[in-house]
Amino acid sequence: MQKHYQQLLNLFQQYKNVLAYLIFGGLTTLINIGVFGVLNTKTSLNYQIANVIAWFLSVLFAYVTNKLWVFASKTHGLKQLLQEMGSFFFFRVLSLLMDMAIMWVGISLLHANPLLTKIVDNVIVVIANYFFSKWYIFKSAK
């Protein structure tokens, strides 16, 4: 029994960043989809404007959770914090462009359901964002 417990503990330690990213990524996705859904159905905003507002709020949440709990990034001083945050937002802007393109193809070209398109879109974007964060933004946290 002790051997199995240790194996599980080792497995958890090996993949804890991925698990934390999936949990907080899921919450970020819920914020993104929830805000988009509310703005898209309860307001007269264009779907792309609703999408950008949802993106901005979810990225703020994602930065804090990724920094503190996923990659446990330590910054020393305001300059380093602003560089890290700038890098995070830069790569999230890249994924926003990807997000907007997927939404445009899904809704404007394919006439798919906006919420379903947003869900599919988020799966692709979350995967891209994980690799951006792991390889470029929080790489010094290792």
Summarize the topology.
Elements: H1 2-42, H2 47-70, H3 78-109, H4 114-137
Name its key features:
single chain, mainly alpha, 142 residues
Using only C-alpha atoms, the radius of gyration works out to: 17 Å
**How does the major sheet shape up?**
none
Mean pLDDT level: 88
| Low-pLDDT residue intervals, each spanning 5 or more residues | none
In DSSP terms, counting alpha (H) and pi (I) runs of 4 or more, how many helices? 4
Binned strand content: under 5%
For the record, give the distance between the C-alpha atoms at the N and C termini, rounded to a whole number: 31 Å
- Element string (H = helix, E = strand): HHHH
What structural class results from the helix and strand content?
mainly alpha
Shape: globular
Instruction: Give the helix level as a range of percent.
Output: over 70%
Give the total of domains: 1
E-strand count: 0
Task: Report on this structure.
The chain is mainly α. It is globular and about 55 Å long. The model has no long low-confidence stretch (mean pLDDT 88). It has one domain. The chain has helices spanning 2-42, 47-70, 78-109, 114-137. The longest helix has 41 residues, at 2-42.
